[in-house]
Amino acid sequence: MSSGIDDNLSASLEDYLEAIYNLTLKKNIARSKDIAEMLDVTRSSVTGALRILSDKGLVNYKPYGLVTLTEQGLSQAITIAKKHEIISSFFVDILGVDRSVASVAACKSEHALGSQIVDRLLAFIEFVTQSSINGNDLVAQFKTYWQQECGQKSIETSYQTDKKDEIQLSLVRPGSTAIFKGVMAGEQLKTRLASLGMVPNAEITVISNSLRGPFVVSFKGSKIALGRDMAKKVMVIPK
Amino acid sequence: MSQKINVAIAGNPNSGKTTIFNALTGARQHVGNYPGVTVEKREGTCSYKGLNINIVDLPGTYSLTAYSTEEIVARDYIIDQHPDVVIDIIDASNIERNLFLATQLMEMNVPLVLVFNMSDIARQKGFVFDTDKLSVFFGAPIVMTVGNRSKGIDQLLSVVVKTALEGPPAVTGSLSYGDEIENELTKIQSLLDVESPLVKKYGKRWLATKLIEWDKEIVNKIASEPILAAVGSSREHLRKIFGDQPQILIADRRYGYISGACQEAVKTTTELRHDMSDRVDAVLTNRVLGLPIFICLMYIIFQLTFSLGKYPMGWLENLFEWLSVFLTSHWPGPEDSQLLSLVVDGVIAGVGGVIVFLPNILLLFLAISILEDSGYMSRAAFIMDQIMHKIGLHGKSFIPMLIGFGCSVPAIMATRILENRRSRLTTMMVIPLFSCGARLPIYALMIPAFFEPRLRGPMLFLIYFIGIVLAIVLAKLLRNTLFRGETMPFVMELPPYRMPTLRGVLIHMWHRAWMYIKKAGTIILGISIILWAATTYPKIDETSLTGMDAQLAQKTQVQYSVVGRIGATIEPAMRPLGFDWRVSTALVGAFAAKEVFVSQLGILYSMGEVDETSETLREHLIEDYTSLQGFCIMIFCLINMPCVATIAMTRQESGSWKWAIFQGASLTVLAYIITLTIYQVGLLFVS
Description:
The structure holds 2 protein chains of 2 kinds. Chain A is α+β, with helices and mostly antiparallel strands. Chain A contains 9 helices and 9 strands. Helices cover about 50% and strands about 15% of the residues of chain A. In chain A, helix 1 (about 10-25) packs across helix 2 and helix 4 (about 70-95) packs across helix 5 (about 100-110). Chain B is of the alpha/beta class. Chain B contains 31 helices and 10 strands. In chain B, strand 3 (about 40-50) and strand 4 (about 50-55) form a beta hairpin. The chains are: A alpha+beta, B alpha/beta.
């Protein structure tokens, strides 16, 4: 895991950071009113939390309610978001849990699991993925085991999280550019996107990113509309 | 000594491929289908300096993998038909992505000519091409064109002819995938010697590349276990080194090659950040405005289609009427000739009934062609995707549904734009629920008979609305049961907006209309004759008709015919719905075409020929039926099995009778259940 994670940041403060991050992505600005609404807490507790975060140098907090993340705050927020991604990837890609179930569980456990454990988890995902490349597909073996023992549904295609700064394309703001890293999707779709020019390290510019509905990006000189589901599966590194 | 040259045109969608094709061939073209698939095959001819040139416009593709039917069709055509020259149309204002297809054509070792189309826009954007250098890199001569103004077409023809006769220039640049991949390719190539027929057809290197890419079509053709095992281990080796799938690596290398070539041979003089398209898109695909603008546009199109179409439709109706009268009065044989009846009541009534919709269909297709050629259609699909996604369909599904309000036959044809077969079948199944133009006469007859003036408008709206709601419910149901599966993820290019050319739009429209006319002339003609026979035969004994007037005789004859008998047979089953033998028989006749319901009802009331404005028929209806029954008749006509032309089209487009029958049967069952419920529940309130 990258440096800069503050293990002392309590669970609820992490939630505040994450909420501010998500709000900034969606609306460009975060107001304490919106934060209170998103986390379902009173505005006075938001004010208290923002003061602590501001003391830690993570947010710029101005009295009339506009909140922005400092550079340090942004990097921590991204780390938290990534942590969520790693935990949920473990649940989904290794254990084969349903994505929706995994997402809820990841939300809860991202606070409980410190960076030590998350680092090991990431290493474990890499280890398992690596060994499947070497011909010893542990995920497939586990899948068979699970199916035989419990008769469960098969798990989705595996995805390797080996790059640390990747985020979902859907989180990139309109007007910003990001570097394409990979897609968590089936072979066919991967090939399709590659033939359109979405190859590793290609630059993708997000043209419009509204809250719902498709998503317009431009790369290799053409404008492409992607479904929101797709945008969530495309992993990029923001520039 | 005329020599024939076969040319295939490949290129990305929206690269102006069809414009070049039209500019080359003019009107000398025709549309067919590639065998076994419903991908349109456009062919045309032109002559140049005494040479006959045969041109095939391949489907537009971004690549030649096995991603879609279009890609497979394009690839197979090039491999199987060995065109003398392949022209690759490249949008010069977006060459990097467009050249991706060129790299693949290059590897197929076909005599290639690259066309940098829309070179005027590229110049405006500040691109300067060193075509000599580029032509060396891609091993093909390059011609600059402006397709919509037919610029550069003569030069293109001369280059094509030269390439066909002399062969392409020698390739000096070559696309290398880097040592690691090249090593694996060599390994696989060395194993390939044994399977000579495949190698002869595809070439060793191409075959090896496709195997490394794990192209399903090609992999399935390889029977040899050791080769597949070697490919498998090569793929794993590459995955281990690069941490990515080999096909992605190869695509990456191709793009690398292109970007290297462009760095050397393409200069950009100005940097245009926001072009016109971006500004237009900011409004047309705006989160708030996008949907209202779309709805307004659709409304305008429908208004225009029906208001402008009304006049030529009237002329056609008059023409067919005049033709019937003319034939009847000038018939050389006896007046009750069976042949005359066949021609007038069968052929003219049946085929004419479909042809009168032609003006509407032409106008609708004209509008759709303009929307498509201008680039708005993909935006519309983008806007609708959010809504369509909820019922498990792709954004593009709305196009056939929209056409369905005009006529189900072209609507089912239009489902071709859907890539995913399950979405396509679902859309096909629900299209008849979008109440078509032929059903309007039924409502126009029934509504004024049973409802007071202030309720008439809302009632018509209610009928259409019920249809839409049922279509949504049914689509959702089908997607969750029979056509289960993931919705195709939405990945669609939003091409730059362009001014459609008159010629392109007209050709586009005409091709579609021609298909519709052909349908009317073949299947619909055949079935009209069968249905005519079913209402005419068996003939009742002349003597039992004596003493009756002409109209009563006509009624007795219909009752005696196959249709009348079927009507009488199903009557007990239709009684719980509130339908008597007249309605039942008319419904059987309506299978030929929905509007026949009105005229059949007229015959059964012994009134001779009637239309939907007939007041006397309405009086009879009011006497015999309650408004509840009237409403039930309309609901049944709305949902009930579509007309025979629709069923035939579903058969053709789905490729199997199974789906055609399923469509007819399930809609009939649905209509029965819903009408039964409405009638029986309604009775409780009425009494």
